Q: What sequence folds into this?
């Protein structure tokens, strides 16, 4: 990871020096372990803030929406797919961007690490295949591959799909992963079981909208949850309102979601709302063979009509 | 998400197909009747004692 | 209370199904009185919001027709 960081600073310094970009969007160390925060570097003096490790799970495409300056952005596989989606949806122009590809080995799941540590964690260091966790009176080591975020564990697009530069050689993609095991389990349930499943899943939701704010797809000027005439969804924690919010949010991401895991990562209550978006992702794959953000030349299935579009649901 | 199939229907009827319209109305009504009343998704007002 | 009757909200396209409903009325055809029709300018106006809003407000069924 140190090599990544070094290379990143070198590239950022060069781009800023040559005035090819005005801003570099990357990560810097947060004030707590495993909490890296996005940062916008505008001057060469600040380049040394940039870091990279397994805690850079936030999707940087989120910070590109409607920007007008020239930007260099670091992009993991999922970030790059969301950047493609942004370009397709006219939220940023390709010419404005220098995309610095970061071949990704998966991001680590801070919640899992926290739950396995016996006390408060003061330091987390990744060294090769292991993650070393240190606290005031303990030190533990876990294999990195068991500590990945759940979406990273089933990711098959670890390498960026578009990039102008790379910080390292491309990594091998994961083979033979079963991406939709959990979705199939839900599909097999009866309507009542499914209702109960989502009732339990969403019970802790406090409607903070962190999932919406972290999501690179949620850039509407006015979100439907903030509309009041008509009011599509109530503001309360009434279970029906909570469900309506999550369901509609997921629908807005249909055919656009890249399963980057930002929503789940941002959730303070640890709700796995990817259960909704993943179902729609699977549906887009099954119905149209579509995976979001892989190509700049193809229109997404939901704003495109083809005579052979599936229509069995229409009587 | 747990809304029963049979509660939501989609169809395509041209403006001249009044017979098909009547047909589909009957079918939809029957299907919804078979599923029963919608109790889960209705937002219930809090009752103040 | 009398026997339960389903309440169905129908979203009909102005140019297709709404016209078909009109024709059915003009032709004095009989059909079940359970549907409450909402005319939309085109099925393209439809949104998942509408379906959920109808269900939340107590509809037993929703029918979208183009």
A:
């Amino acid at each position: 990871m140190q090599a990544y960081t070094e290379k990143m600073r070198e590239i950022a310094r060069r781009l800023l020096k040559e005035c090819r970009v005005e801003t570099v969007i990357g990560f810097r160390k947060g004030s707590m372990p495993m909490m890296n925060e996005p940062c916008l570097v505008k001057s060469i003096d600040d380049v040394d803030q940039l870091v990279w490790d397994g805690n850079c799970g936030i999707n940087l495409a989120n910070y590109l929406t409607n920007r007008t300056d020239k930007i260099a952005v670091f992009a993991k596989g999922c970030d790059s797919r969301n950047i493609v989606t942004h370009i397709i949806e006219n939220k940023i122009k390709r010419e404005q961007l220098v995309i610095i590809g970061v071949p990704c080995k998966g991001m680590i799941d801070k919640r899992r690490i926290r739950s396995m540590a016996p006390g408060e964690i003061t330091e987390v260091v990744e060294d090769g295949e292991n993650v070393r966790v240190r606290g005031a009176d303990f030190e533990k080591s876990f294999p990195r591959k068991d500590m990945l975020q759940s979406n990273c564990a089933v990711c098959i697009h670890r390498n960026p799909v578009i990039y102008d530069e790379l910080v390292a050689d491309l990594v091998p993609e994961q083979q033979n992963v079963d991406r939709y095991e959990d979705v199939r389990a839900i599909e097999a349930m009866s309507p009542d079981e499914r209702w109960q499943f989502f009732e339990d899943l969403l019970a802790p939701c406090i409607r903070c909208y962190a999932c919406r704010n972290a999501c690179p797809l949620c850039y509407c000027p006015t979100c439907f949850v903030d509309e009041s005439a008509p009011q599509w969804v109530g503001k309360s924690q009434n279970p029906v309102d909570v469900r309506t919010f999550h369901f509609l949010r997921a629908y807005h991401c249909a055919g656009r979601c890249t399963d980057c895991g930002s929503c789940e990562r941002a959730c303070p209550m640890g709700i796995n709302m990817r259960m909704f978006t993943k179902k729609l992702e699977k549906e887009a794959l099954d119905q149209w063979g579509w995976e979001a953000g892989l190509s700049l030349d193809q229109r997404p299935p939901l704003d495109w009509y083809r005579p052979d579009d599936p229509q069995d649901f229409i009587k | 998400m747990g809304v029963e199939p049979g509660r939501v229907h989609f169809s395509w009827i041209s403006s001249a197909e009044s017979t098909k319209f009547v047909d589909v109305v009957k079918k939809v009504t029957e299907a919804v009747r078979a599923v029963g009343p919608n109790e889960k998704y209705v937002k219930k007002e809090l009752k103040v004692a | 209370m009398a026997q339960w009757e389903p309440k169905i909200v129908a979203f009909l396209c102005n140019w297709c199904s709404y016209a078909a409903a009109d024709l059915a009325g003009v032709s004095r055809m009989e059909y079940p009185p359970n549907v409450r029709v909402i005319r939309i300018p085109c099925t393209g106006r439809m949104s998942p919001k509408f379906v959920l809003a109808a269900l939340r407000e107590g509809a037993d069924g929703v029918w979208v027709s183009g």
